[in-house]
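To start, one record:
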Amino acid sequence: MFFRNLSLFRFPESTSKSLDKLDQGLDSQRLRECGPMELETRGFVSPFGRDSEELMHQIGAFSLLSIGAEQRLLPSVVVNEALAEKVAKVAEKEGRRVGGKERKRLKEEVISELLPRAFIRPSRLSAYLDAEGGWFVVDSASRKAAEDAVSQVREALGRFPATPMAPEESPRALMTDWLISGKLPAGLVLGDECELRDPAEAGAVVRCRRQDLESDEVREHLKSGKQVFQLGLEFDERISFVLGEDLAVRKLRFLDVVLDQLDRDNIESARAELDASFALMTLELKTLFERLEEWFGLPRPGDRD
């Protein structure tokens, strides 16, 4: 169950106290089935799967959540085709042109007819809260998906002032300096991919993969004024990832020295494996987040922030 991408939010210390009521709030926001005339429903599901009623798994200060959604698939091409048939029938039967208002009404009729028969696509999104550190961590690099997760928790708690990080140090400038100088913070080494961009609007974009980032080719791009928007990194020989200038973490991978701590041969059930993986993942990420906080200046927000 290791997360693959991370969108990070911070919340104040006072919010940690309200997390005691989170379990009750989650229950009021359980995922329900998508009704015949609904496009989508969202709510919490068990991180242990459909056979469990538990909506939260807690280990110390860390609380694992799973946000589910059911979405009816109604492609626009299907709607437009059915609408065209309706418009053609009206024109043929009554010998007149269908106007804009009538077309809109006919489209609503088409959607009402097709929606109950549309396939439902389920989806799941994992997230966890670190009450001690004030982190809300969403397993997605999509800002929209992450903000939707924040909204879902806010509905469950009534109030959840989690905000995107506000770094005191510009991630773009700092990562560019790391790549130019080759001097990275202790424990951090370059990976093998990056994305460089000319900061000018509609400027050139260079994406490097499986590339020596200290090569002359990369340095020439930096000399021409391009800046680092994404940078592959490895931390303490334990975690590799690609860090974006928005501080989203992509392609997160735990290296063998971490994975070897999971004694899968002696894990007797999927539930026990999730428990062990979650405990290991959160402790490793706790250390990484402390370093991110140090490198970029990421203060935990206060109650007035």
